[in-house]
Amino acid sequence: MPASRPPVPPRPDRRAAAHEVRIIGGRWKRSKLPVADRPGLRPTPDRVRETLFNWLGQDLSGWRCLDAFAGSGALGLEAASRGAAHVLLLERDATLVRSLRETVQRLGAGGVDIQCADALAWMRQHVRPEWDLILLDPPFQAEVFTTALMAARPLLASGGLIYLEADRAWCEAQAAALGLSLWRQGRAGAVHYHLLRLAPPTLASCDPAPKTS
Q1: Which of 19, 58, 65, 170 has its CA 20 to 30 A from that of 134?
Q2: Mean pLDDT in the chain?
Q3: In sequence order, what are the residues at sequence separation of 6 or more whose Cβ sits closer than 8 angstroms to the Cβ of residue 20?
Q4: Do residues 30 and 21 touch, judged by C-beta distance below 8 A?
Q5: CB contact at 8 A, 42 and 140
């Protein structure tokens, strides 16, 4: 009688691995964040998040951060992991909101709040310049990049920054048309990412006074 073959180990579930991301820095480093299978949900890649927080500095202690299109919460929770004092996650999908609340509870993230809200409507209704960092990663197919930047700009505190993730690069002229200045930008595959800040005020030019005889 032939010897029995050893059991074949199960293959790793690639779908399961693809439906989670990890926080890459700070106190919750390596913590898993579930990614629900929802239309338009596309978590920011690890490489992009690593670059972004290298730009920002690893310590965000005291910062107030608004993650306007939270999705999996990867961006906002990364900021909280690195010491941000207050992070507000906005998400209109009720399924994602439930997942975010479960994740925040599991992490014990006391400085993170979640609101089930449309990001654009919320920003237009809460026009207070109090945010040090506003994270904008809307669904690419929604084509709301300009609208989101316009809504976010009045919410920036002095010296604040806006992060924009898009399917194409934004140039300095496009940023200037919205009263913003393009500070840094990069690309990872089809993802273009940018850091913008308020453009410095410009002095109106004046004609020289006419000479008197």
Answers
A1: 19
A2: 87
A3: 32, 33, 34, 35
A4: no
A5: yes
**Largest Cα–Cα distance in the chain?**
121
Residue 207 carries which side chain, given as an amino acid letter?
A: D
Q: What is the DSSP string of 129-158?
A: S-EEEEEE---GGG--HHHHHHHHGGGEEE
Confidence (pLDDT) at 42: 78
Q: What are phi and psi of 181, to 5 degrees?
A: -120, 135
CA-based torsion, 141, 146, 151, 154: positive or negative: positive
Name residue 89's beta-bridge partners: 67, 114
Residue 192 φ then ψ, to 5°: -110, 135
Q: Which two tokens stand for residue 15?
A: 């779908």
Query: Residue 138 corresponds to which amino acid?
Result: P
Q: pLDDT tens digits for 117-175? A: 999 999 999 999 999 999 999 999 889 999 999 999 999 999 999 999 999 999 999 99
**Residue 199: burial class (beta carbons within 10 Å; 0-12, 13-18, 19+):** middle
> Alpha-carbon torsion 60, 64, 67, 73, what sign?
positive
pTM: 0.85
Q: Residue 123 gets which letter from DSSP?
A: H
Structure tokens at 19: 């439906």
pLDDT value of residue 123: 98
Whole-number Å distance between alpha carbons of 173 and 142: 22
Q: Rounded to whole angstroms, how far apart are CA atoms 3 and 205?
A: 92
> How far, in Å, are 62, 174, 204 from residue 199 at the CA level?
23, 12, 15
